[in-house]
Amino acid sequence: MNLSYTEEQVMLREQIQKFCETEYDFYKREEVVKSEDDFDANAWSLFAEQGWLSMPFSEESGGFGFGPVELSILFEEFGKSLVIEPYLSNVVLAGSVLDKSNFEGKVELIENICSGSMHVSLAYAEAAHSYEYLKPDTNVSDNKLNGTKTLVLNGNNASKVIVSCVRNGELSLVLVDTTADGVSFNTFRTIDEKTCAEFTFENVSIQDSDVIASGDEAQNLLTETINLATLCISAEAVGCMVSCYHKTVQYTKEREQFDQPISNFQVLQHRMVDMFIDSELAKSLLFKAMLEVDADSEDKFRHVSALKAHVGKFGKLSAQNAVQLHGGMGVSEEMMIGHYLKKMVAIDAMFGNADYHLKSFSK
Amino acid sequence: MDINFSKEDLAFRDELREWLANDYPKHVKDKMDKGEHLTRQDMVDYHKALSAKGWMGYNWPVEYGGTGWSATQLYLFNKEFGMAGCPPLLAFGVSMVAPVIWTFGNEEQKKRFLPDILDFNTWWCQGYSEPGSGSDLASLKTKAVKDGDHYVVNGSKTWTTLAQNADWIFLLVRTDSTGKKQEGISFLLVDMKTPGIEVKPIITIDGDHEVNSVFFTDVKVPVENLVGEEGKGWTYAKFLLAHERFGIAAVGASMRALNELKEVVAELNNSDLDKKVAEMEIAISALEMTELRLLSDLENGGHPGAESSILKIKGTEIQQGLTELFVEAAGEYALMYPGAGGYGSNDKPSGPEHAAVSLEKFLNFRKTSIYGGSNEIQKNIISKFVLGV
Ligand SMILES: Cc1cc2nc3c(=O)[nH]c(=O)nc-3n(C[C@H](O)[C@H](O)[C@H](O)COP(=O)(O)OP(=O)(O)OC[C@H]3O[C@@H](n4cnc5c(N)ncnc54)[C@H](O)[C@@H]3O)c2cc1C
Q1: What is the span of the domain harbouring residue A260?
Q2: Which one of B84, B178, B256, B311 has the fewest beta carbons within 10 angstroms of its own beta carbon?
């Protein structure tokens, strides 16, 4: 047994950390959030140059073939810095579906994603089917796509969306050009300061060549991809939890009330110890989950559920405590700490909240 | 023992309900029911409607134009208004500065300030906290130096709620830095239009502008605006905090939120959430009975003291817990947040209608365990004065 990261993995983490520390401070991020842009285009190009956008793609598709461990490292670091760039939507969600499919045009699409020149989103959610993604109402009949997809991450920036739908009585994933006739969308802000879109498809023409996968293949692709994405955002949550206790320890050591640092108060010390312990446990569940996913084990879904249930509950709690221990500063938008709470709400909401994954785990 | 209210109290409750049904300004009610933001004018209209009925001085003695209500009546007022979803009354004038003025102020000050508070002609804000002085308020540094017939104030206050709307601010200032820090504090009333005052917004994580920094540069305040004696401000400040005992539990408002939550959850068929809602209902019931026990004690001549910190701690935990359940009930749609004030006239996403308001409240209510003496400070109070440790 060996639960240490390899030298390459450590280097990858250091590389991302260096970027986050030097190029991605919170005030720069705030400028982008307050601007018209949804993310920092320069950062996105840098991601492409560093090869981060190509990381998880298989070598046949022109990627590095990195697995869930490397992705988890990346997301953990993204979590610490609250990175808003649309990595999850492009690379993990749309990217893995394409990469693992037998779709003919996939190599070109993946090349465009890796170079950062095109955005592709996965439209998996519908209003009437909370967290149940395998039985959509959106459908194709007579080669026409009809339906509404909600919460399409980064959908407003996408040139193409991969839409889950029913076609010939079975689940299918079809590729739709967002400028095609019959496609319309509204853009909404997310609580973690990104964007998502709600798409309506009205008699959008779908040819056989637009079908990425059908039937069992589509079902597997979607289930595997959502599981991987769940792992990724859970790793992001782990990063948030680590930062929450770090920053809170730092703050309480500096903040003086009653002629002493407030870190002297034992009740606050214990609260921070709890935050630390919960983050360590989250890390442990992350190790378990990413290794099971890496091994493609039968139990991998269960272990991702265990992780997601833990970070859904304790991640939010940690962030709430971090806010509380910062006093008024905790609820001020100017401070980074309150933004971790928003991120934890977003993470819990996505791909099944804590209760949902507890239930999945117990099945 | 008798758990029922007296006939008189029930008649009083009917009178409250009648006002709520007929005289609660419609435009305010509509916005509150939809979770929309009130403008300054809406708040003024609401308070003036209460003034017109003679209820603005709900916790004042009759002598100064107040209602002279009993503790039970006050409780019913808070509960009925909370359950009707009314905006919480702005405490700064009517229940913070006013009792200080009528208890420690001179006749001139009573005449000058109290009628305008009762008629809501002046909007007050509270200038206590400073960047370096939150929980440890007595360490405050904003300085007032006497110069002939006025004080010159320099320094800054922070987290000042709705200072952007305020006509007047009551300030704790340091007039003496030599002795014990509690002893050099004075209580000043300051016109917000005085030259040298600058109000800067602080945006909170819900995206709203509710609090401010207020900066004072050589602000000249006439000496007649000093309340009571110089150096006694700390005593007045503590008096003020003790005065606002009931109502902080917000039982009525939480019951209303609970009922709304039940409606939302009823449609979800989610047994986990059902259980959490039941736990919340039990917690509210326990809180209400605790408040009633304290009340009964008070009406029977008792002096409930630090126990009322229970109401602050549990009241805010329940308020926050309810917002957390609303967010859970929004499920996947807790991801979308348009910012404070909701979608307005913009396109709305599909998904539960309550989601945006729920998220706003969830983020906004984090403050409740921080302000008004943080919950940690409240626990220190209970352990010191009730447990005696
Ligand atoms: C939305 C909002 C509105 C407000 N409105 C007003 C207003 O209108 N006017 C006004 O004057 N003030 C206002 N306040 C300020 C409020 O009263 C202070 O935030 C509060 O007193 C806490 O002070 P602080 O923020 O400096 O936190 P700190 O005092 O720095 O506390 C930080 C953390 O340390 C804990 N802590 C501190 N001391 C101890 C101790 N001895 N033992 C254990 N734990 C401790 C606290 O509980 C908290 O968790 C408002 C605050 C907020 C958030």
Answers
A1: 217-362
A2: B178
